[in-house]
């Protein structure tokens, strides 16, 4: 570790909802400051048109569709507006018009998975106001069986029930951004179909593969962030997606500043896979060693709109923190009870009790809660959040505080109590946008 002036302090600023919080840390203890590779923002319209007219593994979009086709754009919901879909879905619709598909033959189906329906304001946030007046919009409701169609079963036994608006369309276009995913390896692509527009039973059975085969084995090591080879969750999703054969994909790639830096388009698998490689290249960051204290910020709104969404910051911090160390997670979580099932999952005394219950009734929020619960028994996790969240946060086995300064004081005290004078600090101000790896 490079030694610095022991008296010098370095100020860090972290996104906290739509505001920020600051803290000054001693430079001599800073081991790593992990940020994604600087990647300039792109001209979104130009990049979107380019990826549709010169796609990966596919003919141009206007040659994929034919006059008379009913086209369903399956678009990620409001929890994914970090992908800035409101900036480019309009260009997809206009390109479809150019290919002979009028607005009346186009619909947008929001890929909510198990999430709640969106408000009209949230529809605008996802696709922009103009499109809310031009094309039909549908909310996916995973428990409405009369809105679902059974299209087959996967080789792993997952019954695939999908939204009828997607199944009955002549052509499906999947729209999202690509980012590492806790247990599917990467988001986007096949995830727009499963879980995006799948039935509740389909989603839960698929996601059960995120657990090991036997009780007590906990989380399946094949189902982790950035892992795609032999990932049973991802493979099952892909098989389900192939059953309805989406015709085209348009996805964004986001830089560390939260801006669109690339657009990928084309074959729903090949273009998505190329996008995952771009994301890894953009987000991979070498770290020196595991640290005693790690500052892990979700990145501000909308990535920290809820504890559930902000939980994506825990996985990278798990990689770079010493066992028994301190993780200072930073997320405002203004919508902390969304979904309610997430916080309701923190009611077990032991990991074994929680795993047993999870295996009996797997849900996505329950699994994400289980992942965090396991981590709280390996690290001291301090969560910087709104004071009104404190009571709920204590149930998760985390220590709630209102400011990064308070969290820092608690972490320093722990180092002092343990007699660690040479402790190390790692800072990740955009934790959800990086993939730490040991160089």
Report what the structure shows.
This protein is α/β, with parallel strands linked by helices and 439 residues long. It contains 16 helices and 20 strands. The strands form 6 sheets. It has a 6-stranded parallel beta sheet with strand order 3-19-15-16-17-18, with helices on both faces. A hairpin with a 2-residue loop joins strand 1 (9-16) and strand 2 (19-26).
Assembly state (oligomeric): single chain
- What global shape is seen? globular
The total count of helices amounts to 16
Tally of DSSP β-strands: 20
Largest sheet: 6 strands, parallel
- Identify low-pLDDT runs: none
Work out the helicity level: 25-40%
| SSE class | alpha/beta
For the largest sheet, list the strands in their spatial order: 3-19-15-16-17-18
Mean pLDDT over the residues: 94
- The rounded Rg comes to 22 Å
N- and C-termini, Cα separation: 15 Å
Q: How large a portion of the residues is in β-strands, by DSSP E?
A: 15-25%
Summarize the entry for a quick read:
This protein has 439 residues and is of the alpha/beta class. The chain is built from 16 helices and 20 strands. It has helices spanning 44-53, 61-64, 89-98, 120-127, 129-134, 164-167, 200-207, 232-242, 270-283, 307-310, 314-320, 340-344, 351-360, 364-376, 390-394, 404-417, and strands at residues 9-16, 19-26, 30-33, 71-76, 106-111, 136-139, 148-153, 159-163, 171-177, 180-181, 185-186, 248-254, 260-266, 284-287, 291-297, 321-330, 380-384, 399-401, 425-428, 435-438.
């Amino acid at each position: 570790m490079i030694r610095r002036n022991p008296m010098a302090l370095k100020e860090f600023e972290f996104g906290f909802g739509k505001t920020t919080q600051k803290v000054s840390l001693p430079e001599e203890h800073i081991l790593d400051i992990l940020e994604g590779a600087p990647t300039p923002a792109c001209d979104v319209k130009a990049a979107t048109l380019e990826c549709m007219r010169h796609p990966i593994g596919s003919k141009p979009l206007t040659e994929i569709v034919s006059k008379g086709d009913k086209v369903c754009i399956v678009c990620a919901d409001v929890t994914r507006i970090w992908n800035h879909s409101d900036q480019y879905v309009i260009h997809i619709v206009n390109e479809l018009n150019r290919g002979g598909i009028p607005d009346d033959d186009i619909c947008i189906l929001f890929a909510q998975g198990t999430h709640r329906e969106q408000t009209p304001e949230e529809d605008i946030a996802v696709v922009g106001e103009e499109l809310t007046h031009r094309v039909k919009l549908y909310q996916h409701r995973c428990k409405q069986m009369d809105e679902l169609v059974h299209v087959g079963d996967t080789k792993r036994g997952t019954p695939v029930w999908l939204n009828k608006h997607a199944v009955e369309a002549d052509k499906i276009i999947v729209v999202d951004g690509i980012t590492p995913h806790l247990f599917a390896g990467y988001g986007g692509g096949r995830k727009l179909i499963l879980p995006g527009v799948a039935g509740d039973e389909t989603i839960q059975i698929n996601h059960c593969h995120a657990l090991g085969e036997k009780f007590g084995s906990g989380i399946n090591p094949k189902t982790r962030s950035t892992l795609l080879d032999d990932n049973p969750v991802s493979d099952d999703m892909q098989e389900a997606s192939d059953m309805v054969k989406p015709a085209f994909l348009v996805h964004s790639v986001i830089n560390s500043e939260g801006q669109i830096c690339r657009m990928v388009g084309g074959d729903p698998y090949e273009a998505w896979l190329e996008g995952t490689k771009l994301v890894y290249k953009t987000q991979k960051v070498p770290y020196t060693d595991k640290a005693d204290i790690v500052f892990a910020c979700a990145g501000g709104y909308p990535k920290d709109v809820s504890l559930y969404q902000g939980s994506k910051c825990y996985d990278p911090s798990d990689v770079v923190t010493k066992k028994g160390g301190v993780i200072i997670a930073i997320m405002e979580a203004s919508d902390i009870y969304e979904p309610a099932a997430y916080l309701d999952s923190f009611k077990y005394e032991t990991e074994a009790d929680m795993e047993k219950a999870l295996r009996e009734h797997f849900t996505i929020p329950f699994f994400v809660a289980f992942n965090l619960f396991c981590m709280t028994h390996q690290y001291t996790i301090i969560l910087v959040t709104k004071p009104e969240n404190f009571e709920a946060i204590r149930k998760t086995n985390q220590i709630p505080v209102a400011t990064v300064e308070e969290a820092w004081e608690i972490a320093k005290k722990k180092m002092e109590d343990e007699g660690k004078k040479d402790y190390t600090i790692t800072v990740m101000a955009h934790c959800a946008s990086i993939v730490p790896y040991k160089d």
